[in-house]
Amino acid sequence: MKISKICYRGFIEGRVQGVFFRAETRRQAQLLSLDGWVRNIDDGSVEVLICGGEDPVRQMLEWLQAGPPMAEVEVVSLAQSDCPVLAGFNIVS
Question: pTM for the full model?
Fold first, then answer.
């Protein structure tokens, strides 16, 4: 049985750089067996691509609303996107 994947891509704004947001996002994604990536953006936001089964992706989207303890998430702007072929979850530059 093939599990269908869904993907979301977008930006998280607020105090999300310098607070271990990327590392904690990767850790959370790995715990949920998600594929994708996270990266810092020059404007101070963080961009993510989250791919996986519907339930784990929904859990991750919920986690991103608050992020790690030191973060102060103000805006989460994510939209469903195409699912590229990915393996694992990485921090990219």
Answer: 0.93
Is 22 catalytic? The answer is yes
Cα 17 to Cα 24, 25, 43, 53, 72: the distances in Å are 12, 12, 10, 27, 10
Is 40 among the residues known to form the active site? yes
Mean pLDDT of 69-79: 97
Q: Which of 22, 39, 58, 90 is catalytic?
A: 22
Q: Which residue out of 9, 15, 26, 40 is catalytically annotated?
A: 40
The dihedral sign for the CA sequence 56, 80, 83, 68: negative
Beta strands 35-40 and 89-91, pairing class: parallel
